[in-house]
Amino acid sequence: MISLETLPAPARQAFQDLQAENARLQRIVQLKDEQIQLLNFRLFGPKSEKLSSAQIPLLLGEISLTAGEVATEAERPEAEKQNLTPRAKRPRPHHPGREKLPAHLERREHLIPCGPQDCHCDQCGAERPVIGYETREELACEPATFWVRVVKREKRGSHCLEEQGVATAPAPAQIVPKGKLANEFIIEVLAQKYQQHQPVYRQQAVLADNHGIELSRKTLTEAILAAGSLLRPVVQAQKAQLLAGGYVQADETPVPCQTPEKTGRNHRAYLWEYSAPGRRRF
Known about the structure:
mainly alpha; two-stranded antiparallel ribbon; 4 strands; about 10% strand
């Protein structure tokens, strides 16, 4: 094997230049492999693993390194290579704080006393005074409350003559006469169905599962129909106002409907909406 010392100076310099060029080309090949790996990782790897915007220019700029720069970088001590520039801390935005709960809600205080071991002094045994409270607010609620109203209509008998009979207090007006559902209960069913879009069968399931109240769907449906029948005068007034215009606009919407005539599938029903120019729809 020929020693470098036996070669003339120009040959030794050419050989050293070839070694530096070889190191530079190997570095470029390694960099290309890393770029291919990065490209594959971006295409097929998890989306959460990403390089920062500051790393991409450095990675692409490594191709233009010269042989001298590669040799200088290789001669640097290991401690200097690992001494990276510390990452600047991002300024923490000012937090506006927790949003306060509505002021119109009722405040109910819930006092949590200290334990018995904290109520008396360990030295003298005297009771420790209360100096304040650690206070916080939380939004609470109570489940829907149901009760049975027992309606007792007073009955009065005859005072001195049998012909006077028995006098009974008049019955209050009900949406469903002599029904077992109170007016406010029916109004709640209507609000749940038409404001909260909760169908009757789901209300029936909620009452049974959460409150132990068993009501048939027929009972709830009849109550809704009875409440709707009370609105017929309003419908007639709206109809008269609608027909008083020059022409009427109509919109037809198909809706599925369950009927006893068809089993296994719904009946195709229609919902018609009428309106007049410049007036509300009915």
